[in-house]
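Hey, quick one: can you model this chain's 3D structure?
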Amino acid sequence: MNDPIRGEARGTAPVPLSVLDLATVGEGFTATDALKASVELAGLAERKGFTRYWVAEHHSMPGVASSSPAVILAHLAAHTERVRLGSGGVMLPNHAPLVIAEQFGTLEALAPGRVDLGLGRAPGTDGATAAALRRTERLREGAEDFPQQLAELTRFLDDDFPDGHRYARIHAVPGKVQGEKQGRPPIWLLGSSGFSAQLAGQLGLPFAFAHHFSAANTIPALELYRETFRPSSVLDAPYALIGASALAAEDEKEARRQVLTGALSMLRLRTGRPGLVPTPEEAEAYPFSSAEREFVESWLANVTYGTPSAVREGLDALVKRTGADELMLTAQAHSPSARVRSYELISEAYDL
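Sure thing. Here's the predicted structure for all 352 residues.
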């Protein structure tokens, strides 16, 4: 099997290509439709040579059906055989570290050697929902405790709390306590600012940056990661993946119609009106104010969309500009078929 961290570039892609799935739900569709499309898309990713297939944790968002990454990943593990599966990511402050160690130990038992554990410190939702998840109003404290939570989770995964520690006799099962044949998922740190970039560098862990919604911070965060990187038992050199929003269609007009639905969905989310992803017709007819139009165009400036060749050209330029070691593509579109077709067209453009 390939190195679990460093993917292998396929076809004519300059770096390995992977998939980030938000399991988006469009108007007229259901969560069942979205998750069926995820199974179809994971199978496509495996057949076409994408390196990883990650799902993201979001809460209280009607248009996103990926609130439970571990559940979705277990389902995808049953429908795939080779593609790496992982979280992009699990929001660690929302959960007890032991629970995550048990969930991903179970996933590792179900799909040995092909599970990634990507971790973030943001809530993946609004403050009220985060408080409901964590049963506390002290949300800032949860983010500040992230390094400690990460260290605890790592100890549970490795089953190596020192003698005398209060958790020394507690074991994450399934996990390493059952023998070396039970491996453990590699940890990735996710971020959209410099905090996780620096922490990943100091710990010698692979780093995944959310370029798809924090593009202005991409290069500074990657530079910080590389500057602070210390070789570890995991990596001897930095490894940076970036999430990129990309959508391909047979023609540019159709691609624009599809990505506009995602932009309007994001506008509604940012203004406290989350809902299902609107149809292309609704997005085209929406009466944008000048401020809303400015937001949408700014958002779309960070989306690579168009014909397959145009998307390839844009993604290649992004790799060159950032020096990313891997691209993880996310496609926001109204219909499940448009999402799946986009990845198919991109794979053909790169001859994966």
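One thing worth noting: The chain has one domain: 17-255+304-349.
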